[in-house]
Structure to design on (429 residues):
């Protein structure tokens, strides 16, 4: 990516320095590669998540930070890869969430009854920095395991983001206007208050003192790690990229906003660190006032990849006063000769199916043209969307024997993970 054209200029353009002008139609190959990479970093959150309620580690990552990218098959061989996980992120909720999002173990010896693994922070290694042209910090948020179930359960109520706003943003949003009691009764001026969907906000900001994993919220965990890494690499060119799919995409947008408005992308004596969210299948996040505040922040960009037949980007919708932020790359899964004529909305929303289209996308009026070596088999990792003649089994990404092993007594049982992969609370500064 960094080697093409003028390296420093090109990576900044790919990260949205000019809102992807001239890069979307037709789709620039460096931008295509970036979307695919960030999609795979997002997919890693699904591939690593333990969703088996029979396991006492249900709701955690199957793999520890040390060899994470090797175990999700993004890194191969013994060489250092382009990224290294520096921190896991955990979430809880102040109210009961649907099983599609917050899973719990049936075991009385469960690793945690209050928290779920929600994603990770990674940073470019020295090798990655050389290839990318900068020290990139990546934040990957996990979506839901059963894609569409949450949309029927979450009440799309908008709530104020005032509790997370910095003093500067809070005062800037007041505009010196006095608010009266009848404004609240008659809902006057509410369109001027930045709000986001309650479900996203609760997941992002909830804590649970009973859990050693979420004594601090996902927000607090993230901001502490971003602050640490920005300080660590303050003498280098740094970028911050947030990635996610579905519900994870909403968290990517909310947290990207939070990083910038909190001042963490501002380094004294240097230009603002570019903060970019690359998201796929993103639902609505906030209202028009949130959009206005978001798009006014310096160095903050969003590129949303949207499948035209996917229902989730239309949820909750403009009728409920939700507005999308950022730029959009519109694709169409119906153009692929490899995919079934599916009527299943979950297929239209499938991350790997959308990445498959990105890999060959030439525009709405042109056929797909696949020039890279991306395997079409990835589409069926967690679904059955490929045509039968592709000879790829459905939902093929599973643990060997679903984690069952034969013990010394000749009995089959779920194996505990290796020591490096057992969930451990992150050390707090």
């Amino acid at each position: 990516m960094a080697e093409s054209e003028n390296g420093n200029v090109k990576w900044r353009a790919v990260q949205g320095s000019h809102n992807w002008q001239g890069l979307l139609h037709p789709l620039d190959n460096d931008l295509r590669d970036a979307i695919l990479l960030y999609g795979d970093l997002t997919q890693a959150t699904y591939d690593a998540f333990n969703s088996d309620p029979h396991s006492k580690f249900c709701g955690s990552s199957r793999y520890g930070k040390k060899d994470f990218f090797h175990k999700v098959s993004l890194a191969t061989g013994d060489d250092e890869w382009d990224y290294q996980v520096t921190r896991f992120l955990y979430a809880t909720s102040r109210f009961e969430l649907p099983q599609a999002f917050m899973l719990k173990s049936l075991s009385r010896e469960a690793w945690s009854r209050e928290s779920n693994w929600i994603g990770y922070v990674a940073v470019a290694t020295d090798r990655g920095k050389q290839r990318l042209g900068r020290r990139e910090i990546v934040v990957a948020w996990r979506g839901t395991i059963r894609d569409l179930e949450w949309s029927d359960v979450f009440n799309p109520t908008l709530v104020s983001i005032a509790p997370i706003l910095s003093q500067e943003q809070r005062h800037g949003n007041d505009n010196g206007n006095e608010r009266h009691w009848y404004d609240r009764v008659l809902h006057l001026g509410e369109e001027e208050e930045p709000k986001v969907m309650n479900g996203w906000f609760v997941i992002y900001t909830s804590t649970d003192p009973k859990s050693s994993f979420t004594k601090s919220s996902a927000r607090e965990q993230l901001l502490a790690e971003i602050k640490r890494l920005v300080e660590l690499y303050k003498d280098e060119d740094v970028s911050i990229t947030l990635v996610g799919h579905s519900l994870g995409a909403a968290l990517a947008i909310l947290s990207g906003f939070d990083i910038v408005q909190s001042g963490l992308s501002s380094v004294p004596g240097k230009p603002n660190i570019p903060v970019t969210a690359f998201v796929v299948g993103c639902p609505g996040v906030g209202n028009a006032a949130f959009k206005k505040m978001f798009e006014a922040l310096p160095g903050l960009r969003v590129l949303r990849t949207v499948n035209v037949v996917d229902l989730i980007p239309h949820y909750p919708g403009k009728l409920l006063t939700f507005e999308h932020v950022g730029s959009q790359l519109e694709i169409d899964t119906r153009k692929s000769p490899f995919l079934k004529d599916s009527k299943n909305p979950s297929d239209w929303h499938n991350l790997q199916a959308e990445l498959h289209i990105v890999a060959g996308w030439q525009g709405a009026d042109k056929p797909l043209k696949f020039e890279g070596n991306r395997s079409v088999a990835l589409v069926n990792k967690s679904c059955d969307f490929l045509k039968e003649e592709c000879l790829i089994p459905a939902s093929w990404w599973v643990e060997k024997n679903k984690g069952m092993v034969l013990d010394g007594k000749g009995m089959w049982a779920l194996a505990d993970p290796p020591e490096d992969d057992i969930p451990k609370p992150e050390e707090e500064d």
Summary: The radius of gyration is 21 Å. The chain is about 30% helix and 15% strand. The longest helix spans residues 29-48. Confidence is low (pLDDT under 50) at residues 1-5, 175-188.
